[in-house]
């Protein structure tokens, strides 16, 4: 499979590293299109071909086109890219807010996969939700699924709206985790811990908690009950969370992210 990745940013390069490291493709089968030169050396290391600054006739020889550019850059890209796309080609888009219908109309390609990865894909711990058009064959779907699996876990959905939901939950999710962790770190500092100590306390607490969750059949609610004891410190914190409407605020944030994702898709 010959693959071109359009966009040499974090996610484009994450995919390239993952594909190569998993031995799914060879350097000779990977191409890059990117206008910037900031990470040109990294792209040269991953691909046996020169870096292309714009889409050109070689695009027509590709089996898979990966769109890893910013959504606002897509209209100008599509205008040129559509000159070289073929109906037999697969298009994998990781752009937020660009619908399958919009991709098909702009590029004239019926075989489209729309995916929403997240940042932990950079360390092979990503979560990707994806969907496809009916024109994508079972064998083609399997090939793309194998590629996506190199970055972490994947979840297929036949409902495109769930891509917008995934954007709100797993796509933006790492930012929520970091936001909560940062709040805990700052509070630890205020309680008297040094910055290094506060970082260690919070990072190891999150790391260990996730390991517990992954290695046991108990769910999150069960673990909350196990950590809590009547009249104890954990119960005091949970009561404060409820009094401050922490859960409704979190739900409102997730809903706002979902609604914004839908607005962008429309």
Secondary-structure class: alpha/beta
Binned, the helix content reads 40-55%
- What is the overall number of helices? 11
What fraction of the residues are assigned to beta strands by DSSP?
5-15%
User: Could you give the order of strands across the largest sheet?
Assistant: 2-1-3-4-5-6-7
Task: Name the helix and strand elements from N-terminus to C-terminus, one letter apiece.
Answer: EHEHEHEHEEHEHHHHHH
Here the CATH topology of the largest domain equals Rossmann fold
Please tell me the CATH architecture of the largest domain by its name. 3-Layer(aba) Sandwich
Through-space gap between termini:
32 Å
- CATH class assignment of the largest domain: Alpha Beta
Spans where pLDDT lies below 50 across 5 or more residues: none
**What general outline do the C-alpha atoms trace?**
elongated
Number of strands: 7
Question: How many strands, which pairing sense, and closed or not: the largest β-sheet?
Answer: 7 strands, mixed
CATH level 4 superfamily of the largest domain: NAD(P)-binding Rossmann-like Domain
The gyration radius over C-alpha positions equals 22 Å
Query: How many structural domains are formed by the residues?
Result: 2
Nearest-integer average pLDDT: 94
Q: What do you see in this structure?
A:
With 266 residues, the protein is α/β, with parallel strands linked by helices. Helices cover 51% and strands 12% of the residues. The protein has a 7-stranded mixed beta sheet with strand order 2-1-3-4-5-6-7, sandwiched between helices. Helix 1 (10-21) links the parallel strand 1 (3-6) and strand 2. Helix 7 crosses helix 8. The chain is elongated and about 70 Å long. The two termini are 32 Å apart. The mean pLDDT is 94.
């Amino acid at each position: 499979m010959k693959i071109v990745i359009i966009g040499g940013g974090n996610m484009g390069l994450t995919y390239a590293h993952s594909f190569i490291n998993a031995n799914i493709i060879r350097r000779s089968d990977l191409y890059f299109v990117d206008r910037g030169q900031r990470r040109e050396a990294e792209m040269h290391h991953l691909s046996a071909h020169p870096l292309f600054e714009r889409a050109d006739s070689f695009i027509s020889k590709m089996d898979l086109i990966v769109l890893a550019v910013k959504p606002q850059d897509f209209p100008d890209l599509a205008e040129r890219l559509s000159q070289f796309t073929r109906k037999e080609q697969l298009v994998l888009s990781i752009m937020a807010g660009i619908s399958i219908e919009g991709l098909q109309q702009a590029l004239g390609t019926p075989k489209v996969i729309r995916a929403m990865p997240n940042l932990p894909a950079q360390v092979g711990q990503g979560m990707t939700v994806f969907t496809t058009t009916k024109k994508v064959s079972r064998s083609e779907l399997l090939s793309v699924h194998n590629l996506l699996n190199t970055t972490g876990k994947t979840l297929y959905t036949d409902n495109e709206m769930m891509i917008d939901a995934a954007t709100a939950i797993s796509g933006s999710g790492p930012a929520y985790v970091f936001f909560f962790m940062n709040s805990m770190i700052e509070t630890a500092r205020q309680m008297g811990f040094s910055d290094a100590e506060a970082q260690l306390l919070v990072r190891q607490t999150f790391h260990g908690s996730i390991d517990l969750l992954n290695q046991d059949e108990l769910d999150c609610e069960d673990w909350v009950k196990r950590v809590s004891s009547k009249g104890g410190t954990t119960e005091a914190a949970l009561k404060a969370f409820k009094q401050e409407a922490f859960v409704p605020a979190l739900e409102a944030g997730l809903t706002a992210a979902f609604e914004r994702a839908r607005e962008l898709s429309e």
